[in-house]
Amino acid sequence: MHPATIRALYRRLKAANPRPRSELEYSSPFELLVAVMLSAHTTDKSVNAATRRLFPRANTPQALLALGVEGVRPYLRSVGLYNTKSQNLIGLCQRLVEHHGGEVPRERAALEALPGVGRKTASIILNIVFGEHEIAVDTHIFRVANRSGLAPGKTPLAVEQGLLARTPPQFKHDAHHWLLLHGRYVCTARAPACPGCLIADLCEYPDKTVSAPSQKTSRGRSDERPAPRARHRRAAAG
Ligand code: SF4
């Protein structure tokens, strides 16, 4: 995708949602870390259902440690893989208390050393809590980046590196949320809503559900580059 097209794409996502936010509910860095860790392979909705009950009972590493694995498990039943996640949660709290004074560390290596925390979760924490220009790639972002041609790649890491290299600095902080929400609600896995997609005329996906009209400026002419020819047939059908 041409750099001018990429800038246009991000400008539109920003105009539609100037201050994108996580749909996970949290009120502290630690709560966010727990919520993101729990969100692996499950929906934000089910995580929020669990943490609305858990956090009023215990929302610090020390308080969760006091509950123990058996104590947190009943709160996590709405979350997929809750047995493993209950163990990881207590292991995470133990490591935070023993190695980081109960605080969320800001180094990637320290984050990824926590039980249940991988590259994606660490990137989200570095981005949201510490303001780093990280772009965590989940299944939604992987799909949007490949379909649109924004950053094609065969693995999440390749897509992440492509996004970091191509995303203009002014859009890097919010790119994760824009692309995630776009994938979750518009560019869905089974039935992308191309007719109403605000980047349809920029997107290179060859199998759009219908042809999309180009977007116009308030002065009635297109201010963006024309839609390029599709080059990535069969890239990430979802
Ligand atoms: S036009 Fe369709 S395939 Fe392209 S980003 Fe929009 S919803 Fe996804």
Describe this structure in words.
- There is one protein chain.
- With 238 residues, the protein is mainly α.
- The chain has a domain at 29-128: Orthogonal Bundle (Endonuclease III, domain 1).
- 51% of the residues lie in helices and 0% in strands.
- It has 10 helices and no strands.
- The protein has helices spanning 3-16, 29-38, 44-57, 61-72, 82-100, 108-112, 119-128, 139-148, 156-166, 169-185.
- The longest helix has 19 residues, at 82-100.
- The protein is elongated.
- The relative contact order is 0.13.
- Residues 212-238 have low confidence and may be disordered.
- Residues 144, 147-148, 186-187, 192-194, 197, 199-200, 203, 205, 208, 212 line the site of iron/sulfur cluster.
Considering the protein shown, what is the CATH homologous superfamily of the domain at 29-128? Hypothetical protein, domain 2
Class computed from helices, strands and strand pairing: mainly alpha
Give the helix level as a range of percent.
Answer: 40-55%
**Count of extended strands:** 0
What is the overall silhouette? elongated
- Please report the distance between the alpha carbons of the first and last residues: 19 Å
Taken as a percent bin, the fraction of beta residues is: under 5%
Tell me the CATH architecture of the domain at 29-128.
Answer: Orthogonal Bundle
What sequence of helices (H) and strands (E) makes up the elements? HHHHHHHHHH
Bound ligands, named by name, code or SMILES: iron/sulfur cluster
- Number of helical segments with 4 or more residues: 10
Residue-averaged pLDDT: 88
- Which parts are unreliable, with pLDDT below 50 for 5 consecutive residues or more? 212-238
CATH fold category name of the domain at 29-128 = Endonuclease III, domain 1
Based on CA atoms alone, the radius of gyration comes out at 20 Å
CATH first level of the domain at 29-128: Mainly Alpha
Main sheet, how many strands, which sense, barrel? Answer: none
